[in-house]
């Protein structure tokens, strides 16, 4: 296995490990929110406010910033050293803070219009609550933007664990605030929980950057800086494309506002569960691969194409078993996570169905996310925008077609289909810009994975038949059933992959051995 692939897999595994705590705490916060607020009118209003603030965050902080900053910073760090890269990062922080300040002010002033666009089906009382919550939520953008900049610096320097763990601090803050103040403050306490979490998420990553000897104190941008200019030239089209991409959740919210009360909340709960594997696998791999793709461009098109191919295959190898398992055991998973308090049987069945529909899109999300990182690394903003446009258009058309016959589940399925279609569009556009054939799939790879997935499917259906989920059992007993399903399904999948000689298993083994060897070498040096 190449050094690049070994490093990418190792960094992705580190990201997965660090992200696990954050995602588990993220599920815990949704469990607590569901128990206290159920699927209610006030929670619908909060999620509209959170979606608007999150839209701005993903557009500026974790979207266009990462797409434009990380490839340029990683290449400058590789070619010109840490001092030059630090200067570039400080200039970028000035530009970012200015843009965020403008967006926060505009967001406050335009909150009534934004809410009316996001949720035209809300009544007056529900709309007024959403507007109030939105105005309080927008400063969150400033905090997570600086956190995202720090994350980009750390990832480019080969530090992945702290950025993965940092969101866990935000979830700890959220859970603490909600448990202490929900009974007295109602849904407004959720806003303060999000804001405090943003402060902690920013602080821990800025501290980690300073320990690496890099300062992110704003510096006056220099007009003649070619790398800053290159970054900004990439930032603007990426921002435009990603702003289109954020229409996808808006489509679900807008159409969901015309459905029964609780529809938006149900979609959010299901999406939060899907965020666990999405963050653990897809996002972890995409964050690990972006700096590597940026560097390997210096080694030629063949190395770049092979890294893209292997990254997509590794992402699919990890996400496909989760997709199959999520579709089979969505009911038990939602039941054990949320079925308590105000979360009733209707919410359970509805969320289980939505989760299955979202799960079908995980492979497409995995492919699309990695391919988009390849487009970012190669500096192809027009192609990235085209992929986004294909996703939005297909999502809108399919959502409208499925809304009447399928309701909220149709909105979830439309999102999955749209991501899958956009991944094919992205692969086609990327292939046109590479001289070396990517060769993403071949018959041998497909057969190996089908055998492994078949083994997993047989195991889970066999468990459901011979030992059904104990719906009326204790919490401990139901949780053990989920754990048993995960262990059994994972064992059969890995066993099937091993029998078929899966290359991805070999990559993981080599990456783990490489990491152990590196750790032992560092310990030996410290003992000298």
Automatic annotation (TrEMBL):
Q: Which CDD domains match?
A: MATE_MurJ_like
Ranges that cross the membrane: 95-117, 137-154, 161-184, 190-210, 314-338, 358-376, 383-402, 408-430, 450-469, 481-500
Highest taxon above the source species: Bacteria
UniProt keywords, alphabetically: Cell membrane, Cell shape, Cell wall biogenesis/degradation, Membrane, Peptidoglycan synthesis, Transmembrane, Transmembrane helix, Transport
Q: Give an example GO biological process.
A: peptidoglycan biosynthetic process
Keyword DNA damage assigned: no
Where does it reside?
Cell membrane
> Can the keyword Transport be found in this entry's annotation?
yes
Task: Give the way it sits in the membrane.
Answer: Multi-pass membrane protein
What Gene Ontology cellular-component terms does the record carry?
plasma membrane
Pathway named in the protein's UniProt entry: Cell wall biogenesis; peptidoglycan biosynthesis
Which GO terms fall under molecular function for this chain's record?
A: lipid-linked peptidoglycan transporter activity
The record's function comment reads: Involved in peptidoglycan biosynthesis. Transports lipid-linked peptidoglycan precursors from the inner to the outer leaflet of the cytoplasmic membrane.
Q: What family is this protein classified in? A: Belongs to the MurJ/MviN family.
**Alphabetical list of HAMAP family matching this protein:** MurJ_MviN
> Which named protein is this?
Probable lipid II flippase MurJ
Q: What is the native source organism of this protein?
A: Dethiosulfovibrio peptidovorans DSM 11002
This protein's gene is called murJ
């Amino acid at each position: 296995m190449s050094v690049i692939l070994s490093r990418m897999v190792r960094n992705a595994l580190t990201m997965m490990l660090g992200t696990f705590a954050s995602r588990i705490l993220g599920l815990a916060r949704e469990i607590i929110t569901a128990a206290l607020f159920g699927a209610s009118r006030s929670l619908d209003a909060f999620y509209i406010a959170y979606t608007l603030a999150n839209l701005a965050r993903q557009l500026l902080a974790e979207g266009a910033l990462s797409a434009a900053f990380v490839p340029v910073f990683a290449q400058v760090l590789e070619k010109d050293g840490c001092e030059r890269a630090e200067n570039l990062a400080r200039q970028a922080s000035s530009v970012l803070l200015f843009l965020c300040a403008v967006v926060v002010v505009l967001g406050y002033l335009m909150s009534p219009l934004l809410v009316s666009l996001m949720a035209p089906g809300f009544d007056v009382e529900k709309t007024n609550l959403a507007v109030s919550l939105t105005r309080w939520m927008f400063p969150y953008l400033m905090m997570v933007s600086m956190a995202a900049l720090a994350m980009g610096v750390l990832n480019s320097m080969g530090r992945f664990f702290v950025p993965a763990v940092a969101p866990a601090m935000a979830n700890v803050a959220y859970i603490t605030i909600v448990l202490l103040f929900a009974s007295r403050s109602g849904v407004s306490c959720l806003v303060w929980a999000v804001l405090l979490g943003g402060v902690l998420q920013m602080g821990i990553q800025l501290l980690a950057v300073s320990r690496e000897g890099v300062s992110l104190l704003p510096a006056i941008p220099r007009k003649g800086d070619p790398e800053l200019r290159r970054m900004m030239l990439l930032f603007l089209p990426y921002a435009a494309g990603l702003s289109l991409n954020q229409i996808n959740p808006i489509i679900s919210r807008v159409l969901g506002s015309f459905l029964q009360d609780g529809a938006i909340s149900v979609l959010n709960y299901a999406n939060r569960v899907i965020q666990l594997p999405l963050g653990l696998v897809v996002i972890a791999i995409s964050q690990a691969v972006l700096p590597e793709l940026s560097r390997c461009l210096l080694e030629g098109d063949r190395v770049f194409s092979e890294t893209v191919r292997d990254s997509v295959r590794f992402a699919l190898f990890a996400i496909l078993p989760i997709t199959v398992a999520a579709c089979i055991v969505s009911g038990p998973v939602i039941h054990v996570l949320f079925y308590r308090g105000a979360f009733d049987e209707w919410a359970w069945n509805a969320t289980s169905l939505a989760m299955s529909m979202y799960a079908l899109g995980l492979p497409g999300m995995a492919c699309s996310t990695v391919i988009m990182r390849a487009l970012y690394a190669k500096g192809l903003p027009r192609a990235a925008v085209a992929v986004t446009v294909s996703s939005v258009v297909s999502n809108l058309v399919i959502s409208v077609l499925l809304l009447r016959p399928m309701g909220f589940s149709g909105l979830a399925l439309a999102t999955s289909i749209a991501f899958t279609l956009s991944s094919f569009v992205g692969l086609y556009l990327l292939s046109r810009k590479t001289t070396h054939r990517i060769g993403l799939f071949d018959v041998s790879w497909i057969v190996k994975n089908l055998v492994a997935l078949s083994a997993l499917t047989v195991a889970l259906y066999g468990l459901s038949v011979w030992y059904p989920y104990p719906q009326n059992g204790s919490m401990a007993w139901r949780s053990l059933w989920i754990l048993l399903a995960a262990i059994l399904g994972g064992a059969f999948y890995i066993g099937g992959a091993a029998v078929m000689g899966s290359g991805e298993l070999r990559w993981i083994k080599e990456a783990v051995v490489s990491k152990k060897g590196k750790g032992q070498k560092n310990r030996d040096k410290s003992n000298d």
